[in-house]
Amino acid sequence: MNMPATLPPEIARRRTFAIISHPDAGKTTLTEKFLLFGGAIQMAGQVRAKGEARRTRSDYMKIEADRGISVSASAMSFDFGSFRFNLVDTPGHSDFSEDTYRTLTAVDAAIMVIDGAKGVESQTRKLFEVCRLRDLPILTFCNKMDRESRDTFDIIDEIQQNLAIDVAPASWPIGQGRDFIGCYDILHDRLELMDRADRNRVAESIKIDGLADPKLAEHVPAELLAKLREELEVARELLPVFNRQSLLEGHMTPIWFGSAINSFGVRELMQGIAEFGPEPQPQRAESRRVAPGEAAVTGVVFKVQANMDPKHRDRVAFVRLASGHFQRGMKLLHVRSKKPMAVSNPVLFLAADRELAEEAWAGDIIGIPNHGQLRIGDALTEGEALRFTGIPSFAPELLQGVRALDPMKAKHLDKALTQFAEEGAAKVFKPMLGSGFIVGVVGALQFEVLASRIEQEYGLPVRFEPSQFTSARWVTGPKDEVEKFVNVNKQHIARDSDGDLVFLTRLQWDIDRIGRDYLTLKLTSTKEMMV
Questions:
Q1: C-alpha gyration radius of the chain
Q2: S-S: 294 plus which of 127, 191, 323, 437, CB 3.0-4.6 Å?
Q3: What is the model's pTM?
Q4: How far apart are CA 388 and CA 322, in angstroms?
């Protein structure tokens, strides 16, 4: 396929990105301010503020409201200047699920938020590695500069050392902690001053003519100004100059400094995404790459969320449009089932409000309500039998048995677990021997989330119990070998929700032994979400 040299303007103006961070680095606050500056909400509600009126708009599940964390990834679209931003929220809790990893397959760039006092934390590192695997461009926001924070060079140095990426300062903080008064915008030669009095007001911006401009002295106290000039001189010697190409290739991250809670530095970061961030990128499919400018509509399901509205047992499949101009009511081919599907009520998520999407373009994320036909990894096209690749499914790191406290309701449990498995919230294994299920997750908090959701959405109190197994591997190989293997290891064999064979074990030794005894079998810890 010949790719048009330039994208249609509607596609070119889209920026689809996720925010990654360690818990408490300020991701939710930053999301709020994005929506505020994008005109999507009038007042940024504090995450843990009192009163329903100020509930954070991006966290809507009950467990999130209770714990003040984002558990489910939702997508929000809003305009910023002439750009359309699609912000895909990633669960940021330390026990987050593979949902987070999968979300990163649906975006073209990521914003990494780090805390000015804590620097690069474990979770950030994990997420960063996933971005690296996909060569995702990363923009960095160093938050909480209005609190005691580390030395600016130390922060930059730590990112470079820990994450092995070049860091180019896009802005430079003036003062820190109590003395933090704003930043010098290196890319546009501007002075940005923070207003502490009104948290929702956009900071004032003063155009200057280089660091020698006498106007600087009118706004910046003498000793802070001297320090700023000195630090920037050192920075010019030691740090690389920002280069958009390096950003797009994933080798360099520009860093902005600010304080999300004080709405400071957020607008500059948003301008950075608009100006330097990538436009919608080609998506990988098995047979070819799908270019965003192609006329035919294609999309891939990267997340399924059930019961977003408990009154209606609906599921919403989140679809990243890979190409084309989608219009409501279109008939698309559901590649896995080979059946056409009329998409009559797609939704766009504008903060917490859903509205019917009359149209959407490549790069957009739309929600398609359905009753379970759509699963993660599914492709929707205008007829081509495409299979998108690169959406991983990870072997769970924690396994537990689960049973309904009321034995009469075991059937309902079966239904609930099947649904969560299709949603990608957990792996559900049905052992060959004995009754019951084994549930596998990536982080311990997921068990709590599942128990809470099964009880809320199905009225089914359940109990998770320790299981004798600690790891799961998918089994593939020649049919007769697989059968022989299954017959010998029945007590270790289960099937996942797709019906694929899984070997459950306690010890790494078992996995190694099978590798030795059955040379033609493959035991893998990931499988592509292929349909």
A1: 25
A2: 323
A3: 0.74
A4: 10
